[in-house]
What does this fold into?
Amino acid sequence: MKSDYAKLASRALAISLLLSAALLPGCGGGEQGSEGEQGSQEETTTAPSGKSTNAQGGDATAQVVAATEAFLATLDDAQREQASFEFDSDLKTSNWSNLPAPLVERSGVPLSDMTEEQQQAAMAILQAALSEEGYQKTVGIMVSDQVLADEGGDGGPQFGIDRYVVAILGTPSKTEPWMFQFGGHHLGLNLTVSGQDNVLTPSFVGVQPSEYTLDEAGDLPSFVPTDALGGGTIRPMGDENDLAFKMINALDQTQQEQAILDYQVSDLILGPGEDGRVLEPEGIPASEMNADQQAILLDLVRQWVGIVNEGTAEKRMSKIEDDLNETYFAWSGPTTNGQPVYYRITGPTLHIEFAHENQPPPGGVLHIHSIYRDPTDDYGEQSISK
It folds into this structure.
């Protein structure tokens, strides 16, 4: 798709430089213990600090449009054509995966083919589009993939930060629908922007290794905001793990028997490539939980809903809370934290799956897969038809 950005390049480039300077994250970060409680385990970072352009509210659509225009203005003509596609392109559904390159090649411009200015501008889109926590989770997943790459091995799957890809479907607009895709191994973010609606479903979020230290990541590219990740052991999906075990163990025996599936599940059912399918709710409905148990369930759901900017996330959570009695929690596996498990949360507008990948003997957790969907609005289908 050829887009006429030339006449806007001067203005957008200025925006890019301002965003690159203004959006660099701060330092620090909270520490998280094994049960998701602050300060209960020293030197474990699961939700490190950083700054998002949406942290103080404001017009999320205007911010992400400005950041995307600024990014496109930094590209040369060939790169801009490589990054840009029609909004109704089939790539919308096929250009994201949990698998690494070259098993699944992504269309778009990889970070490896960008200058440092362009890389910073790409990261600025993420900061504009996501919440503070969502941006930090994304950075943590990217760094984890660099740790995996640094573990060595020639040939076969290829890992690392430089293999993450940016694609823009449609023309960035405050009124007309368009889409921002960012992904690589264990990450596939699909943000559909349609007026004031910012829809992040479907998206894949995973991590390998599930925990690491920055020392294991080696020399990272200068555009990666390592200060945002804090120190100690970094667990980009620590809350998704710990709150789930808190949830299953908050249920009494009768409730657990209802929640635990009578068959084993070891990986995602409705992952990438499974668009349009729905699963019948299984497990225990929130209507049969007490208020404290429901609060834990909502905190768990928020780990995915809260990736997108705060204003959008709050509206989304409000809808999920309205449907809470029709929302189900299902579990497969042991109930002791540290053991590989699978769980699922399903509601009228919600589908979340989380699965550990098992380590080779003697066992343990190798890495994490998860999927976040809205069966009524994946790819912004409902928002676009308004």
User: Anything to note?
Assistant: Residues 1-52 have pLDDT under 50 and may be disordered. Residues 132-150 form the longest helix (19 residues). The CA atoms of residues 64 and 99 lie 27 Å apart. The chain has two domains: 6-234, 238-384.
